[in-house]
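Suppose a colleague, Dr. K., hands you the sequence of a protein chain of 107 amino acids and asks what its three-dimensional shape might be. Before reaching for any lab equipment, you can write down a predicted structure in token form. Begin with the sequence itself:
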Amino acid sequence: MPTTKKFVHVVNFYLKPDLSAADVKKFEEGVSSLGKIESLIVFNVGKPAATDRPVIDRSYSYCLLTVFNDEAGHDVYQEHPVHLEFIENCNMLWDKVVIFDSETIEL
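The predicted structure, expressed as tokens, is then:
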């Protein structure tokens, strides 16, 4: 029976605090370009929501949520020219990234 597990890749970006509006736009355009990568089945980029509870971490600047059919799809994404170009063109705009990779569970 084929697996229904999905591979989830979440990246929280912590942008440098002194970026110009043009730099932020460059980042937003760059990160949004990742949505063109064919192996994606879910793609979302967002800023922290206004929710405020003690368990919510809102310290990041942008959150990238991507979902793939499997780890192989994620591996294609990692080596894709669009992804490599984004890193090359935008890595100077962030102080750090925090990545969470997970596989969905089957119940």
